[in-house]
Amino acid sequence: MNVVSVINYKGGVGKTTLTANLGAELAARGRRVLLIDLDPQASLTFSFFQPTQWERELAEERTILQWFGSVLDTGPTEPLEKYVLTPPVVNELIGRTGEGRLDLVASHLMMVDVDLDFAAELGGSRFQHGSPRFLSLHRALADELAGEAFAGYDTVLIDCPPNFTMVTRTGIVASDHLLVPARPDYLSTLGIDYLRKKVSELTRDYNRVAGTAVARINPTILGVVFTMVQYANNGPIVSQRNYLNQPDTIEAPVFRQSIRDNKTLFAPAGEQGIPAVLIPDGNPHVQYELQQLASEFLAKTRT
């Protein structure tokens, strides 16, 4: 099982769209995929469930918010598998072509409060290394995914919020790799090097506290994926071309396949509960790019 966190400090870079489409394409190819939505905006969740359905059926008892509540509680932690959902619409479509499956752990709009609770438990927003719960809280998600209930998944994709607070850190600790979506512009590429430094700091601090008590971590950047690329007749528009090579200056790997901007395909996908890559009669150019990205992802993770 490969666990991959999808993250960028800059919002609006297509992070959720990339996660939903990559997961759906992998499932359509026969793989078992789990998506975990850690973002308080819950956009990944709303890509598969209508907000009214979420409010009626999921919000009170079936989201990651309730699971984190049990993690922070003094009693036994609820098993994460209790919160795994199988979105019906997209899986009905996936089931027509094979035996793959796409599951989801839904997010909640009140997830912003979880970070405050984590900070209080760890002795402040600096995540005090001396806290007796430092390791257990950082490892909460990793320990669950290492359990037998999740052994059948081929890939886990974690949609992280655009920050490096405690919720994000649990996702990073659980991950083998990071996938970094970025628009080819100044603000989107600016935070890539900073993200890498924060991951290095977390890895160093965590492994120092862990010692030989638990397994060490070493999450690596799988690659930067350029999204929302705008094309003219002869390729990407001039204002974006320089940024397409920007990660080379910080020695970050870059996926060969980028994803073009296409609001007419991506915008309605969430309403249908089916990611753009699987929409019948969708834009063939965009769907081809998403399919090629999935192939490159599989090659990089060797699954």
Total of helices: 14
The CATH superfamily appears as: P-loop containing nucleotide triphosphate hydrolases
Number of strands: 9
Radius of gyration: 19 Å
Mean pLDDT over all positions: 89
**How many structural domains does the protein architecture include?**
1
- Ends apart, CA distance between termini: 8 Å
Strand order of the largest sheet: 3-4-2-5-1-6-7
What sequence of helices (H) and strands (E) makes up the elements?
Answer: EHEHHHEHEHHHEHEHEEEHHHH
CATH-defined architecture: 3-Layer(aba) Sandwich
- CATH-assigned fold name: Rossmann fold
Q: Tell me what portion of residues adopts beta-strand conformation.
A: 5-15%
Quick one: overall form? globular
* Poorly predicted residue ranges: none
Class in CATH? Alpha Beta
Main β-sheet description: 7 strands, mixed
Report on this structure.
By secondary structure, this protein is an alpha/beta fold. The protein has one domain: Rossmann fold (3-Layer(aba) Sandwich), CATH 3.40.50. Helix content is 43%, strand content 13%. The chain contains 14 helices and 9 strands. The protein has a 7-stranded mixed beta sheet with strand order 3-4-2-5-1-6-7, with helices on both faces. Helix 1 (15-28) packs across helix 14 and helix 4 packs parallel to helix 6. The model has no long low-confidence stretch (mean pLDDT 89).
